[in-house]
Structures are given as C-alpha cells and as structure tokens.
Amino acid sequence: MIIQEKNKSGRVACPRFRKCGGKPLFLTCSLFCVLLLGPAPSFAQSTRKAKPKQRSVQPQVNAEVQFERFVKQADEARLAERFEDAVALYSEALKIKPKWPDGWWYVGAIFYQKDLYAQARDAFQNLVALEPERGPAWAMLGLCQFQTGEYERAGVSLQRGRSLGVNDKSELAAVVRYHAAIVHIRFEYFENAYDILNEFVRFGNETPKVIEAFGLTILRMPFLPNEIPSAQREKVLIAGQAGYNMAARRLDQARAAFDTLLSQYPNDPNVHYAFGVYLLSQDSDRALKEFKRELEISPNHFAAMTQMAFEYMKRDQFNEALPLAEKAVQLAPKLYAARNVLGRVLLDLDQVDRAIKELEEGVKLAPASPEMHFALARAYTRAGRKEEAARERETFKKLQDEYNQKRQIEEKPNPQ
Amino acid sequence: MFKKYLLIAVVIALGIVANAQMNAVRRWNPRRVPADTVFAGDQACSECHKKIFASAGNSGMAQAMEPVAESKILSENPKLKMSVGPYTYEITRNGKQSSYSVTDGKDTISFPILYALGQGRMGQTYVLERDGKFYESLVSFYNEPKALDFTIGAPRGVPKSLADAAGRLLSANEVASCFSCHSTSAVAGGSQLRLEKLAHGVRCEACHGPGGQHIAAVKAGDTPAKSIFNPGLMSGDELTQQFCAACHRGAEEFSLLQSMEINNVRFQPYRIFHSKCYSDDRNISCTACHNPHEPLREDAAYYDKRCLECHSLRDKNAKAGGGTSCPVADKDCTSCHMPKMEIKAAHFKFTDHFIRVVKPGEAYPN
Fold first, then answer.
1. Bridge partners, B323 (sequence order)
2. What kind and span of H or E run contains B117?
3. Do A397 and B273 touch (CB under 8 A)?
4. Spatial contact of B141 and B117, defined as CB atoms under 8 Å apart
5. Above 80 in pLDDT, residue A29?
6. B27: nearest CA in chain A?
C-alpha cells in the first residue's frame, strides 16, 4: 500500500508544494499529502486486498478484475495529479464495490482538496456509515460540514472524530481542533472552546489563526473568523494575545496584553470579564472588582455572575453567592458551570434536595465533566445516598483516569 | 429494665447533641475564613482543653510555621550556603534573627526572614517580604542533607538575574494560600492578609473555627458543643476531600490541575481517593489513622491496627475486621501497600496514600 511506502521512508516528497498556499486555514501541503497519498493508517484493511474465499461464479470474477483495473488506474491518476480522472475511476470502482472504504476516503479527500465540500461530505458520510469507529473519517466529515455551513452537524462530527481519535500530533488533528473550537465559539460554548484551544498551547502552536480564536473566545464573541467586524479585529487580536499567554501561563505577557485591551476598550463588553478571569488565579479580590465592573457594563452577564458566585462561595459568603448563582441559572439554564455553583452553594446551605436537583441537571448537561460528578457525589453523600455517591465517585475517577491517559499520550515525545 | 431505658435515653440525648452541633455550626473550612472573623486565640482554648492543647502543640500541623526567633532549624544551622552558577545564597543567624541573601559577586539582595514555613521534618521554605510584595525563597533548607537546595517546584537552572535568583514573586492568592495553611488567623475574606493577627502553625481555631461564641456559651452555662465546629462529625469523604484537602489537596483539585507525576505523592487526600477501599466510611478517612492533636505516629504496628479495623487476619479465628485478609502477612501493611516514594528534589520519602497491591517494577500510578 502507498501508506506503507510512506511510512518506510518516514516522509513523503510533495509534488504539489507550491500549490498549497491558497488552502483554507491550516490545510497545508503536508496534510494533503497524507490525505491523498493514502487513507488514514486505520484503513489498512482494504477491501481491495481482501480476497473472497469462494469465487465460483464467472461474473464475480469479471467484476473483481474490473474493480482492480479501475483502482489501479485511479491510483495512477491520483498520483499523477489527474484528480478528475481519479475521481471518475474511483467512482467506477465504487459502483462495483460500494462498501470499499478506501475508495470513499480517496474520493472525499480529492473533492475536499478541490473545494467541492458538498461532494466531499457525501463521500465521507458514506465512509462513516461503513466504518463508524474511524476517527479521521468523522473528522473529515466534520470539516466538510463546516465548509458547507452545517455548523451544528460539523460540531457533532468533529467531536466524534476527536473522541474516536485523530492522531493528536498530526496536522489533521490541528485542523480538526481548530474547527472544533470555532464551532464551539459559534454556538457560544466559550469555556469548551477555551479548553480545546488550550491544546494548541500544549503543542506550542501560536499561529495568528489560533490567536484570533483565543480572542473570540475570551471576548465571548460568537463569530466565525471571517465574520469579525473589521472595526473589532484589532481588539480580538489583542485579546487573543492575552488569552494565549494566559493559557501558556506567561502571566507577564498576558498582563501586558490585558493592560492594552483595558486602556483601549475600557467600556466594551467582556473586556473586564476576561481580565477578571485572568486575575482569578492570582488575586481573587481584584478579580471580583473586575466582574462587578463587567456587570455594570453588561447587567445580564451570567458568566461573570457564575464566577462571582464561585468566589463568594469559597469565602463562605453565601448571601452574596446564592442570588448570583440563581440568576446565572435563570439566565443560562444550559450552562453547567452555573448549575454547578448553584448546587454547591445550596449544599453548603444544607438545602440538600435542591442541591441534588441542580447538580443532577449539571451532570446531564456536562456528563464528561469530572467536577460535576464530584460535586454530585458530595451531595449524595450528604443525603445519605451512599450507593449513588459511590457511583459518582467512580465516574469521577474514570473520567480523571481517561484525562490523565490522554495527557500522557500527548506528552510523550514524538518518535519522529 | 430501668437501665435499658436509661441507655436508650442517653443514646437519644447524644444523638440530639450531635445533631445540634451540626445544625449550630454548619460548616467551617480553614481556607474560607469570612472577612469579619475574630479568633479568640489558643490560650483561651487551653483554659479548658489542657490535655489536647498540650499534645496538639507538638503536632506537625501546629509546627507548620516556625517563629523565626525560636526556630530550631535556623538556630541549629546558623550558616547555610549554596551556590548556583554565579549566585551564592546564604542564610545566617544573628541572635534571634535570620537573614536570607543572594549575591552575584557584585550586588547583593538581602531579606530578613520573617516567615519560616515547614516543621522541618522534610525541610523549610521561607516567605520573604519587600515593599509589600511577597516572595518564595528560591532555595529551601532540607533536613536529610542538612543543607540548602532548590525549593520544590522552582526552576532548577541558573537564574537569569539576581532578582530572579532571590525568589519567586507570589501572587495575592498564593500568599493567602501559604498563610492560610501554615498559620492561623492571618487570612480572611478571600485573600486579605492580616499578618498582625498571625498565629504560627495550624492552631485550634484553624480547624474548629472562631471560639468566641463557644467560650461565651460555656460561661453562660449553655451547651458549648453547639457553638463550635467539630470536624469529627463530618462524613469520611467530606472530611478527607474537603476539610483536610483544603490544605493537603484532594482529588477534585487535581482534576483541574496538570499532572505533577511523582510530586503529587505529597497530597494524601488525592492519593487515597484512588484506593480501591476508599469510600465515605470514616474508617478510611484521614482521622482514622492520624490524630491531628498528636505528633505523627511512625510505628508500623500502629497503622496495622487501623488496617485490621476492616481487614481480617490470615487466622480467621483471630479478632479483626471482617474484610479480606492479606495472603502474605498480618503486619507491616504499609510497607507493601503504602510504599514510601522518594521525591529526589525534596530529599524525602513520602508515604504514598494510594493503598494498593504494588507490583514490582510498576510505574508510579499518577
């Protein structure tokens, strides 16, 4: 297989190097080499190599011969960069064997490379129907759906691709990570977007696009990058520098960016909130002041209310924490963090039943959040519901172990 | 018959008292001291609780911060020196005072040591102050080599400047964390420092909350237990993962932190949470094995008894808990199931509280 040839040498010469500059976002030369030179490594069990055990009927033999011929010609066309011919020939092969996964991969990749995203999407849709556990296929489907404007579906597919596994250090992973973050920003799941963007920090990927995405995230602007109003672009980029440096724990650089942001945009929404988040881990008193200032600018800023409620809870100031947490839940009933803080405050006030209700709702909203399960375990413990508490503690441990394992894999040095 | 009713009455009365305690002083957390909290001070407690007061003074927690004037470590090691690249550190004793200095040969930065954190079993780190800003000393004293070395977590290379060499600037929250866990009454209302009220080490009210009302209740003849927080009434999990973990760091905190690998062995609530036998039962909580009012017990036999509260001996007829028995031995449980793990940077072996069957050569379970 071509992919094996590539792996032997460890690298692939790219005949198209100079043609890649115009691809959207990260999609650069090397990614397309991978996509077009061979299917993802997990596709190694190609149906084209699988020989049927019994081939007694003549038409089947003819079809097999014909299939092999189409595939051979398609591969040649693809490697010669005659992509239209390649697609036509792969399509012929797929008419004979519509359950041939590699064929759909090649067709999808070529369409994607040609910016024919709807066709590419359909090809990858066929592929995931055949092999629903293939992370890279879901990832490519998500990227196509993103390009066709089906953002909600894109979010689901990209998430599925990421959870099934796209080699975290590959270029495809970076592309998928970026788009997953953008989709979360688009749907105002800024905290999730920030977590995803944090992965770029771990890999040291500080590109302008990543900075821009950080800016959108910390300013809580639900825009796609190409929708950012030109008058706001500079603000987004300054905020992005602040956000990236904050995530990278380069606190002095983050502070310098925040100082610029505050001096230039002191009355813009979310600026004080973002600065408050930055301050939380260092000076929570000052952070509270920034959140209060944010509420003066944006009275319904439920995220600021949630942060303040957490901080007041930490100080046992429940009279301040409770109304803020309740209002945050009222304004953003789908925000699990708001349910989390409300549940915790209620628990500390010994309103155990109400606390359990809020925390159960939070777990429903964020089943993969370890801290939600931990909080719910505490509440069940307080209510004497020992078995349920033990179950939640186990879920917490499981999620934590998964997270640690993922992290260990990421932190292993790249063998190349 | 009368005795039976009397016993029932006593049990009910005790239950009411316990319940009243929970209702009266709802929660207390050493790291969540409200802004207006007034502490009565240890001496006030000692008037009634003489015995506990005497033994608690020798506990590790009470010695979590040494007064510099009486510091055993600084007195016994009057001149400590260490060099890193062009920088030379010195901690010198002069009467009842100590100073910490670093020089590059041309310039010198010097601080009086005001806060010595750590009882010295492992070592001691210094919080330095200049112009209202606090710094963590870049080097600490370690007991095993009786010498200075880099503070755990500090970068171990040659510092970039003399200022960097002196220490790490602490954020307001970090300063609050240091003083909240190593002293009493010094922090309230989040990160507000009130160092004029600082009492060295973890004293009575750090864990039991302010004692003023309690003392007033005693004097007034009311039920004193109603007006003081008793951590002994918390459930096992709450005690371990919230109360003790407020300083010793628990599982939830680690869910939000980056992996620290072997360094996390220092944080016992986090480690024990991962044990198979961990539950909400108080028999597996911190105080099942450790009495915070006493110095740390070091004898394995003492801990064997704690294990056998739940586990059986190999001889099924022997008196012990009803749980599984160890196929290998009936004693020295901790030597196999809670091995000591060395953090080289700390010059110390910590007991890993992740209770487990340790397989030879296995990697440290993070």
1. B311
2. strand B115-117
3. yes
4. no
5. no
6. A348
All residues at 6 or more sequence positions from A384 whose CB lies less than 8 Å from its CB, including other chains: none
Residue B323's SS3 state is strand
- What is the side-by-side order of every strand in the sheet holding B87-94? B79-84, B87-94, B97-103, B108-112
Instruction: For residue B350, list its beta bridge partners.
Output: B341
**Residue B154 to chain A, least CA–CA distance (Å):** 15
- Say what percent of chain B tops pLDDT 90: 65
CA angle A8–A14–A16, rounded 5-degree value: 160
Q: Which residues from chain A sit within 8 angstroms of residue B26, using beta carbons?
A: 348-350
Interface of B with A in 75-114 (CB under 8 A): none
Can you give the pLDDT at residue B261?
A: 76
Q: For the CA atoms of chain B, what is the radius of gyration?
A: 23
d(CA B51, CA B54) in angstroms, rounded, equals: 5
- Alpha-carbon gap, residue A254 to A107, rounded angstroms: 45
The shortest C-alpha distance from A378 to chain B (Å) reads 7
Residue A19 CB coordination number (10 Å): 13
Q: Which residues of A touch B278 (CB under 8 A)?
A: 393
**A-proximal residues of B, 142-181, CB under 8 Å:** 171-174
The 3 state secondary structure assigned to chain A is CHHHHHHHHCCCCCCCHHHHHHCCCCCCHHHHHHHHHCCCHHHCCCCCCCCCCCCCCHHHHHHHHHHHHHHHHHHHHHHCCCHHHHHHHHHHHHHHCCCCHHHHHHHHHHHHHCCCHHHHHHHHHHHHHHCCCCHHHHHHHHHHHHHCCCHHHHHHHHHHHHHHCCCCCCHHHHHHHHHHHHHHHHCCCHHHHHHHHHHHHHCCCCCHHHHHHHHHHHCCCCCCHHHCCHHHHHHHHHHHHHHHHHHCCCHHHHHHHHHHHHHHCCCCCCHHHHHHHHHHCCCHHHHHHHHHHHHHHCCCCHHHHHHHHHHHHHCCCHHHHHHHHHHHHHHCCCCHHHHHHHHHHHHHCCCHHHHHHHHHHHHHHCCCCHHHHHHHHHHHHHCCCHHHHHHHHHHHHHHHHHHHHHHHHHHCCCCC
Give pTM, 2 decimals. 0.78
Give the nearest partner residue to A404 out of B34, B237, B259, using CB atoms: B259
Cα separation, B13 vs B366, in Å, equals 46
Question: Over B274-307, what HEC string results?
Answer: CCCCCCCCHHHCHHHHCCCCCCCCCCHHHHHHHH
Which amino acid is located at B197 in the chain? K
What amino acid occupies position A208?
A: P
The SS3 call for residue B355 is coil
Domain ranges of chain B: 24-62+180-229, 65-170, 232-351
Residue B295 confidence class, pLDDT cut points 50, 70, 90: very high
Q: Does A56 have pLDDT greater than 70?
A: no
Q: What is the distance between the alpha carbons of residues A371 and B256, in angstroms, rounded to a whole number?
A: 8
Mutation for B interface: A369, A378, A380, A412, most B CBs within 10 A: A378
Q: Is A138 on the interface with B (CB under 8 A)?
A: no
State yes or no: pLDDT of A151 exceeds 60: yes
pLDDT score of A298 more than 90: yes
pLDDT value of position A25: 40
Angle CA B128–B140–B168, to nearest 5 = 45
Rounded to whole angstroms, how far apart are CA atoms A112 and A125? 13
Model pLDDT, residue B3: 52
Q: How large is the ipTM? A: 0.80
Domains of chain A are 1-41+65-138 (1.25.40.10), 315-403 (1.25.40.10)
